[in-house]
């Protein structure tokens, strides 16, 4: 399947993209390269190749979550002059 100028313009119209004449030829070349690449992929023999299972996560392989309380408020606020109780204070920016 060869992508022609008419097809590029139709795709641009459907995508609501404005393209110039010089861009049309560049896009046509790119789309034809993509189609050629996909055709090459279709030629690959995948007979006997198993399913790709990278990234599957099983619950038994996951670590158990544990709740820890780490209250470092005093350590964090000791380095500022602008504080009110346990919070940072910042200049008012909305009037």
Structural overview:
It is a single chain. The protein has a two-stranded antiparallel ribbon with strand order 1-2. The protein starts with a helix and ends in a 7-residue tail after the last strand. 1% of the residues are buried. Helices cover 41% and strands 4% of the residues. It has a domain at 5-43: Orthogonal Bundle (Histone, subunit A), CATH 1.10.20. β1 and β2 (87-88) form a beta hairpin. The chain is mainly alpha-helical.
Output the CATH topology of the domain at 5-43. Histone, subunit A
Number of helices: 3
The radius of gyration is 29 Å
The coarse overall form would be flat
Decide which structural class fits the backbone.
mainly alpha
- Main sheet properties: 2 strands, antiparallel
Could you give the order of strands across the largest sheet? Answer: 1-2
Report the span from N to C terminus: 62 Å
Q: Can you tell me the CATH class of the domain at 5-43?
A: Mainly Alpha
Poorly predicted segments: none
Strand content: under 5%
Fraction in helix: 40-55%
Order of helices and strands: HHHEE
**Overall pLDDT level:** 88
Q: What is the number of beta strands?
A: 2
Do you know the CATH architecture of the domain at 5-43?
Orthogonal Bundle
